[in-house]
Amino acid sequence: MSATTPRPRAVAEHPRAGDRTEGSARTADAADAYRAAARRWTTGVGVLTTRSGEDVYAKTVSSLCTLSLDPLLISVAVAARSPLAAAARASGRYAVSVLGAGQEAVARRFAAPGAGHALGLFTQVPMRDDTGVPVLEENVAWFDCRLHTVLPGGDHTVLVGRVVGSGTTPGDPLLYHEGRYHRLHHHLPTSPTGARE
User: Fold this and answer.
1) Which of 7, 80, 101, 140 has the highest CB neighbour count under 10 A?
2) Where would I find the H helices in the chain?
3) Residue 104: is it exposed, middle or buried by C-beta count within 10 angstroms (0-12/13-18/19+)?
4) Is 20 helix (H, G, I), strand (E, B) or coil?
């Protein structure tokens, strides 16, 4: 190439409209596949609660995870923009009440947008407030936590709590599977051949 011949200019290629549409479709397909797979994961159901001043917050969750025995830690995820997440940060404490099989109405109540905020305790759902953190009176298990750390989780915030108190009550838990609430089915014992005894 002679000194007088201009060098070819690099041209930045911009994605065509069709490429953007295909990329969006792939992202949507991936999200749909993710949701479908996640719905196959059966979980228990809990109500996450915290108090900040006179404001009490409650939200139905299925993301409870036991993390550690030493120290005693659990985690729970809530929407990053949730007022409950901000309240838990401000107060430094929260509780999770694990719901029993007969508490689907409670789960639905606190899953509804805007239903999980009150001044003082929720009158229609009995709670106790022995340690400064509201706990549902009726539950099959509960965890009273002090905020250990807060982790980013995409569009959610993960609240890691150090468990300072916990307890259980006899009864079966409420389950969540395929977008619906369920109860445990107790099967009769079977022999090694699969026949019922």
Assistant:
1) 140
2) 17-39, 83-91, 104-111
3) middle
4) helix
DSSP state, 140?
A: S
Q: Could you give the C-alpha distances from 151 to 75, 78, 191, 195, in angstroms and in order?
A: 10, 11, 47, 49
Q: Are 132 and 50 in contact (CB under 8 A)?
A: no
* Residue 34 CB neighbours (<10 A): 10
pLDDT in tens, 80-98: 999 999 999 999 999 999 9
- Set out the domains of the chain in order of their start, with CATH numbers: 44-166 (2.30.110.10)
Please, are residues 100 and 109 in contact by the beta-carbon 8 Å criterion?
no
- CA distances to 32, 43, 113, 141 from 185, rounded to whole Å, are 29, 15, 31, 19
Q: Is the pLDDT of residue 134 over 50?
A: yes
In whole angstroms, give the CA distance from residue 132 to residue 142: 14
